[in-house]
């Protein structure tokens, strides 16, 4: 009979769980960041490595440079124009992702995803940062 109660208690405990992945970064954790002053290495030193980091195409401006080459072959001329498009301001966006799942077998299941992002210029200086919370997903 003891085994029955132990198994039942273990099964009920297993049905209610909380799981977290990633590092939670809240507003109180980033009050020291100054736009245009704080460096990427300072952010990484305090918050750790981000979940992901990639070029941030949103604020980039592009310029096009055209080069025309003319060559003479006998009596005819041939012109070739090459256009190169390159970014003027290169920036990078780092994302710190935190996912929390709560609930279980008997009480429903909710997942919340929170995101802290930092945008750096080409020299690794913070240009902007912010928070985004994804919609919670509930499974009943």
Short synopsis of the structure:
The protein is an alpha+beta fold and 140 residues long. It has helices at 2-14, 40-47, and strands at 16-22, 52-55, 62-73, 76-87, 91-104, 108-121, 126-133, 137-139. Strands 1, 2, 5, 6, 7 and 8 form a 6-stranded antiparallel sheet that branches.
Task: Note the main attributes of this structure.
single chain; 140 residues; alpha+beta; Beta-lactamase Inhibitory Protein, Chain:B, domain 1; six-stranded antiparallel beta sheet; two-stranded antiparallel ribbon; 2 helices; 8 strands; 15% helix; 53% strand; elongated; disordered C terminus
The number of strands is 8
> How many angstroms separate the termini?
32 Å
CATH class of the domain at 16-59 and 89-139: Alpha Beta
Helix count, DSSP H or I runs of 4 or more residues = 2
**What kind of assembly state do the chains in view correspond to?**
single chain
Structural class estimated from helices and strands: alpha+beta
Secondary-structure element order, N to C: HEHEEEEEEE
Say what the CATH topology of the domain at 16-59 and 89-139 is.
Beta-lactamase Inhibitory Protein, Chain:B, domain 1
Assign the CATH architecture of the domain at 16-59 and 89-139: 2-Layer Sandwich
Q: How much beta, percentage-wise?
A: over 45%
């Amino acid at each position: 009979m003891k085994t029955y109660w132990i198994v039942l208690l273990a099964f009920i405990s297993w049905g209610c769980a909380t799981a977290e992945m990633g590092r939670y970064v809240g507003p109180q954790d980033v009050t020291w960041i100054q736009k245009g002053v704080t460096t990427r290495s300072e952010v990484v030193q305090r918050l750790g490595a981000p979940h992901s980091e990639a070029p941030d195409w949103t604020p980039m401006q592009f310029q096009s440079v055209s080069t025309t080459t003319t060559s003479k072959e006998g009596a005819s001329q041939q012109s070739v124009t090459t256009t190169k498009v390159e970014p003027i301001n290169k920036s990078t966006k780092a994302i710190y992702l935190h996912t929390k799942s709560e609930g279980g077998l008997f009480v429903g299941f909710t997942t919340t995803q929170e995101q802290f992002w930092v945008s750096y210029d080409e020299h690794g200086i913070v240009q902007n940062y912010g928070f985004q919370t994804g919609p919670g997903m509930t499974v009943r």
